[in-house]
Amino acid sequence: MSGLVLKLAPKERVLINGVVIENGERRSRLAIMTPNAHILRLRDAIHPEQANTPVRRVCYVAQLVLSGDAEPEETRMQLLRGIEQLSQVLTDADSRRQLAAATAAVLSREHYQALKHLRGLLPREERLFASAHPQ
Q1: Torsion over CA of 107, 111, 116 and 119, rounded to 10 degrees?
Q2: Are 105 and 78 part of one and the same domain?
């Protein structure tokens, strides 16, 4: 993650290597220079009870690595299996690109990037569930 820049809103919280940091009263930018730092914006965090769909469950596993609650090597196969299962359902070209990028990120131990690509699938999954269960 060398060179990652976080743009934080006032009072926004972020978890960096297991430490919660809260921004001050003004917008700010943080440059994260340490490679392989574990970073999670708390506004983007998925709580355990919210990991109730296939994409959210895989995102949650990636998030556990970023929060320091799971070891990357212990979750690697679980993430790759979850991404593979998603690829069986999300077959459009854009989803395939996102899943391929997430796979590459997991294999490169770039869990922040993996989570970013997986989160990009959440709106698509939401639309699929909405169309399957119209109100």
Answers
A1: 90
A2: yes
User: Where are the strands (E) in 49-117, listed by range?
Assistant: none
CA triple 21-18-103, angle to 5 deg? 110
Q: What is the pLDDT of residues 87-96, one digit of tens each?
A: 999 999 999 9
Q: Which two tokens stand for residue 6?
A: 């976080």
Residue identified by tokens 């743009």 is 7
| Residue the block writes with tokens 């490679």 | 35
Shared domain check, 84 and 98: yes
CB 76 within 8 A of CB 111: no
Residues 34 and 50 both lie in one domain: no
Could you read off the pLDDT of 40-99 as tens digits, one per residue?
888 889 999 999 999 999 999 999 998 888 988 999 999 999 999 999 999 999 999 999
Task: Kindly state whether residues 57 and 121 are assigned to the same domain.
Answer: yes
Give the pairing of strands 19-22 and 28-32.
Answer: unpaired
